[in-house]
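Deliverable D5.2: sample structural annotation.
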Amino acid sequence: MNRKRDTKSGAGKIVRGALFVVLLILLLGSCEQMFTFSPLSWAQRDPSNLSDAQKIAYAEGVLGSGDTDAMADAYNAIKDSSDPDVQYLASQLAVGASGLNEAAEEILALIDTIDTATINTILGSVDDTMLANSIAAMDTAEGDSSTKEDIALEDYLVTAAAILIEADVSVDNIATNIDAATPNKSGGTYDKAAYYLQEAGYTSTDLENLLNFGS
């Protein structure tokens, strides 16, 4: 994966802009996605051979496990479901499988000394295909009124971050560009990100505060 990000002048502001997209993942503890249950006893089986109900149970079991391969397998097992609730689960699995949570944790662990080049390298390890899968699944889930009621606010934030990272936008002036956008799930990158931020209850003021993090 080749990511092209601005590493020229104003590095401090650029670093804070890059941190914005990963800080979204940490808000409200969404990075953890930890649950009290463990993968079922048959979790090592190929989930594609399970019944539909077992596929969903398997997917719920591996979500939050930290096993990106298992989450990818679980995503692939349920991705074609027409059930919006299952698509919501698929979106969460795809985020986990992308490695975005680990990237966020790695960046935050280095927050006092990290530079733009290191951020680029860490974000470059994230699986863009899985991010795109997560966004598409969330679009489907969020489009159903009954499922929409159950979507956690942090998952809207995660989707907004996924949109920005997957599109490889310039990290400089993110807040300004989103503030100027028209929230629209079917619109361009910033319009779509603005829509999901709006659904999470975030404003341009919140974004500016995030961009001033550590300054």
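Annotation notes: Residues 10 and 172 are 9 Å apart (CA to CA). Residues 20-209 form one domain.
The annotation will be released with the project's public dataset once the embargo ends.
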